[in-house]
Amino acid sequence: MALGDRSAFDASPRSRRRHRTGTANVKTLDKSGKDNRHTDRQSVDRRPGRRLLTLREAACYLGISPWTLRELTWKGSLPVVRMTRKLHFDLQDLDRFIEAAKDRL
Known about the structure:
The protein is mainly alpha-helical. It has a domain at 52-101. Helices cover 35% and strands 6% of the residues. It has five helices and two strands. The chain has helices at 7-10, 13-16, 55-62, 66-75, 91-101, and strands at 52-54, 88-90. A two-stranded antiparallel ribbon has the order 1-2. Helix 3 packs across helix 4.
């Protein structure tokens, strides 16, 4: 093989792979033609009948960090539901907290 001959390298499967750069969203469709992308972390699963959110989900819902949400709970500013060791938050309580925090002009 000559020094300038790259045909042996170009035929390898590795050379055909492309490196994906950036964070562009790739749109994938399922068989029915609906968008099949996963939602981002800030999206909250809003299934009908789902009333309790985990600590992380509630923090995303309020737009604050989980640690700040823990501190609000410890101070008594926000009620918490403890069915197990995990902290759960009622959507209605979160909405009341948001309404109380609004500035009235």
